[in-house]
Fold these 2 entries.
Entry 1:
Amino acid sequence: MTERQIVARLAREARPYYPRLGMAVLLGAVNSVLLLVGPWALGVIFNKVIQPATDRAAHVQPDLNALYLALAATYFSVVLSNFATYGTSYITTWCGQRFLASLRQSLYERLLRLPLQVFDRWRPGELIARFNSDLQVMSDAVSVSLPQSIGAVLTFVGSFVTMIVIDWLLTLVLVVIAPLMSLAVSRFQKLISSSMSRSQSRIAHLSATLTEVLQGQRVVKAFGREEFEAERFRNRNEDYFGAFMKMNQFVFMQPAVISAILTLGVVAIIWLSAHEVLVGRLNGGSIMTYWLLVVNLVNPMNRMAAFVGDLSKAIVSTGRAYELLDLPVEEDDGAQARPLPRIRGAVEFDDVSFAYDERSGLALRGVNARIEAGEIVALVGPSGAGKTTIVNLIPRFYRPQQGRVLVDGIDLAHVRLADLRAQVAIVPQDPQLFRASIAENIRYGRLDASDDDVRAAAVEANAAEFIAQLAEGYATEVGERGVRLSGGQRQRIAIARAIVRDPRILILDEATSALDSHSEALIEQALDRLLPGRTTFIIAHRLSTIRRATKILYIENGCVLEVGTHDELLARGGHYARLHAAQFAL
Ligand SMILES: Nc1ncnc2c1ncn2[C@@H]1O[C@H](COP(=O)(O)OP(=O)(O)OP(=O)(O)O)[C@@H](O)[C@H]1O
Ligand SMILES: [Mg+2]
């Protein structure tokens, strides 16, 4: 997206805030008028009091009423102007933060609807950076720069117009240097936004490193790689530091250059106006007012230059946020998507080929398989064969590039995604628990499950016993990744979660790591209660689960090579028999 497109979109999306922003501008305009009062009053004091008092030869009495009036006007205009500034800042910040809050929400909702491919491709830190540092840059812009720049622009306009009224010829000088200034501003803006992009992508890199280490701290410790990770972080930290400082060079240099140009104009104006007084075209009071207005002008102009820098930073960040916001969501329901009423659970793979992305090769090649409703299917095969990939297609986490996956004879490509997933439950290999109570973690399977349902599910999953031993029972909070529970306990909670969901199709990725035999027995009992009546896919590593299956799919290299029961396949003496001999036979 180009900078212009980003700004246009921003302007469009900010439309609901226009009335409020209009108020802010109105208050800013009031403020800019109030700021004229001081210079005007000083001019009056000079002409009506100071001039007559110093130049006694003129025999004009100093006008003390005018003095007091001018002083009162100065005082009240300053006080009111500060309140008006407060109003402008508050309203603008409110609008900005409201806008950001809803942007943050949309970003989050978008994130929830992204297809899994995106998460395969983007590192979590990259995504997190858009939430943290990019939104922070935008927040600074809307809370600090925007209100101040509204004030500055209006003050500039007010002073400028008044200066034209007092002496348009003089003021022309400023108009002459304007193109020079805008040239400088636009040059800097380009430099700032390109260096800003670089700096933001480096901080994303940095935070990706951080999240990786946080997720993998056990690995880091186990391999004693603290120094190595510190070094890696140091390099990226330095990269970011360098990029950030480069950007700030431009940000800080901009006002200096702008002010060099501007001051040239100001000096010319002062020189010319002094000349005007010398030749008698302007009186002392007007010149005093005029000079004060020039001062009024310089400050906002300097600030505006800085704001342009902040705003171009913010635009870069907005672009990065929009980039995330525009990622295509999971291909959901076209208008023709069929509702999927309660299914029986027959699943068919019809010549399915699939690749995760263009670069990697086929993960599945021409898979054909028919699974009747209620069957228990064990997927067996070497690591990397494509077992997880096959089951990933059932809840439509991914779509096959070729062939069809059918449920009860209906092509999954054409059904409503929500209907499909409502009837599928997954017990992953390494189940993740949310940071919430155990009861809430189980209820995640079906949000309207009653407490009794939750308890019943826990009993069925053989989890009730260990839950009862926890100090707070079902209300026990489990950590961010459930670290306070053992693998077997987490898996049983995940099974309870699947049980409350009461799915028609159950997908179970058996833990490869050996559980202790007690947990294993408990989990098997739980499965025996969960499996009947549902179609179940088990990526099986244990002989006992494989034996229980009504059908075994032997998978290798993305192809289903053998199909049959344990005994049939053993009798055939093929791939499965060899795997069995190598893995299980004593
Ligand atoms: N998210 C992904 N993006 C790209 N390629 C992937 C992705 N997940 C798996 N693959 C690739 O697809 C192939 C099949 O992987 P899959 O995870 O299905 O194997 P698996 O049979 O489940 O193995 P394991 O028993 O080790 O879990 C592998 O070559 C793997 O590299
Ligand atoms: Mg797998």
Entry 2:
Amino acid sequence: MGYFAKSSAGIDLDRLQEYLNARSINAYLDSVREAGERAAGIVRSMLDFSRTGASRREMCDVNEILDEVLKIALLDYDMKKKYDIIDARIIKKYDFLGARGMFVRSELTQMFLNIIKNAVQAMAENNSDGKIPQIILSTKGTPETVIIEIADNGPGIPEEKRSIIFEPFYTTKDPGVGTGLGLFIAYYIVTAHHNGSITVTDNDGTGTKFIIELKKE
Ligand SMILES: Nc1ncnc2c1ncn2[C@@H]1O[C@H](COP(=O)(O)OP(=O)(O)O)[C@@H](O)[C@H]1O
Ligand SMILES: [Mg+2]
């Protein structure tokens, strides 16, 4: 509460504080925050638990996993929905030799699905101008890593939001549409389980591009 001058927005902050205390609103907000932190902790330990279970590293071809994810996304087809991957143009730029490594297949599937679903949803919100939704999937192998780029031509993510989209429960979607957990889970899978990194940029000003780097093992 100490950030603003007392006269900020014409509100007497001492009296506002009194009001918030009288109505127990501060305590309420604290408990909301605690509940959020507890839920994030539960998700974290679920992800850790899944690592000790069936999720072992095995030789995977990332191109194959991406193709599998596209199939799953297509199965998600639903006439009631206003958006669908079936409407999108998919461009693949695969490195057919270098995209193999020791990864946890089910986790990469989940991670790519979360990112591609976001792209589909974002492009659907933004297609009033008749632009054909487009997703570019590219893979590139280096001796130690596989680098995957997933680019869409949707509305993009404002620069000041790019550092918080990976936080648990950050969502711009309506309740029931978004949980704000998709990118948090993606981040966790990449960084904690694959010694990798995930970053986001604008796609040269025409949308959103996620860049994922996985360490081959
Ligand atoms: N491809 C994208 N284009 C535009 N915004 C995106 C994209 N991917 C993610 N976002 C933003 O990041 C937020 C968090 O994504 P996510 O963690 O998957 O949660 P959710 O999809 O449940 O909202 C989204 O609500 C959206 O605002
Ligand atoms: Mg999502």
